[in-house]
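Homework help board

Subject: predicted structure for assignment chain

Our instructor gave us this sequence and asked us to write out the predicted structure in token form, then describe one feature. I got the tokens but I'm not sure how to describe them. Can anyone check?
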Amino acid sequence: MTIHTDSISSDTSPALPAPAALDDPYYYLHNFHTALDWVGTRYADLLGTEEQAFIGCFATLPRPAQALLVRMVMRKGTLFRIGKLRYPEIGDIPAAMAALCATNWVIDDPDISLTDLFSVLTRPELQRAFGKHLPAGRKAEQLAALAADEPAARPLSRWAPSLHDTLYALTIMPLCDRLRLMFFGNLHQDWSEFVLAELGVYRYETVPVDQHSRAFHDAADIDLGLRLHACREALDAGTPVADVLAQLPQGDAGTDWLQARRERLLFRLGQQAEKDQDFDTALAIYPACRWPGARARHIRVLERCGHDRDALTLARHAWQQPENDAEQQQLTRMMPRLQRRLGEPVERTARPAPPAEQVLILPRPDVPQPVEYVVRDHLHSDDAPVYYVENTLITGLFGLLCWQALFTPLPGAFFHPFHHAPADLLQADFYPRRQALFDAALAELDDTRWRETIRRHFHEKSGIQNPFVFWGALDATLLEQALACLPPAHLALWFRRLLRDIRAHRAGMPDLIRFYPDEHRYDMIEVKGPGDRLQDNQRRWLAFCAEHRMPVSVCYLRWADDT
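My token output:
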């Protein structure tokens, strides 16, 4: 996404954050300067003393020192051996490093733990450092054996005095991560986005953004974003749930998208507690969690703990107003089970009619391949071509038709040049905030405009990031056959279902679609191989299609040599 600044006043507008040309040996440094300028201007009121001092001091360093710092910031970890740093454009690495040490952003020969030592030394170097005291085995086994003695941290020069190299520690990484969070609004994107954009690996939609479209409006929310990221990393690293919970910020966040991240993390903590069979902790987490699915998990844990009465009470409460189709589906299974165990009359609910089924018995292919491909190739003919389109065709047509609605620059939706999707895409108010825009796009399905809009966006926007369009799965032939054979009334039903719950409904669609171009019709086929069964989201999509009399079926594939 390229940001236009013509709507931003000249006294507050940062320079356009366009990537530097890759033929410039200092392209990465120019990109870093661009990001600092962008952050420094847009977040001037939120920058603390430390961030302001860094931005000001960085600009005064010699270019080789600036370049070396950015090179280290962009690499993994914070420990660097000077002998491993080789950048021809920088030249004298020791001199550049000395300038960085003078700022205290880098320190030389820091105390490091045994674990850090194993990360920076090779196996031969470890052998020279420990000699006969290094046990046999893999590196991880050697580390575990030596760690049993709990050796104290010490500089590399003492761990390996014969090693002719110097270790440096980058101390500025937390501050750089803070600046990166302010630029992107997340920490899963990094400075390589500039390079990927310049290479053309990713292309982004052009969206005008004004000075008020920022990820953060309060310094406390930046702190919260960093703390949530730290908690998520701790959970991923295997830190006990109780320890992560103790670090998790309490209360509501200042922005909806940060609150959503907190709720999602809380849900994951509940799931991990279940996996650990720590049901008391799970029961403490789920009632306070507002992430979709938390209430159903709460009912399930109550049931597993033998609290059937409490589980049924909560299930009945949920049944009055299910949060989504998935919860309603789960309740239809849980409530009868709980009622039977409690000796109560079972309240039967209407179950959707099962989809049409067919069984195919085919020879096992000589070269293993997905069962969907086997069925596709068997059913395909020139008169009725079959495509594997799982979760790509319907969503792709939606993304192409509704392109303008998706990329309208509402507050909080876009705030940097590299958005793959609106930042609020999975928030509950995503559709309500844009209802008029989406309704206008879907109104085209009532006349002849929709085909031309989809074609135009397919050609004009080719390759540009869109959360619903997977360019590798959609070519011109497939597109034209879809436009000829799919009724606009069916598209309208699918698209409105997507908008009701984007997170849940953009998956679970049938695997194959078969077109009958001469008859301007289609059918969809969900493929299941031996031993496979329908997943819940697939059942919901099949039920939806059956409810609206769409041609859909399930094909069960069996191998001839198994019969």
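Reply (TA_rk): Your tokens look well-formed. For the description, you could write something like this. The first strand starts at residue 79 and ends at 81. That's the kind of observation they're looking for.
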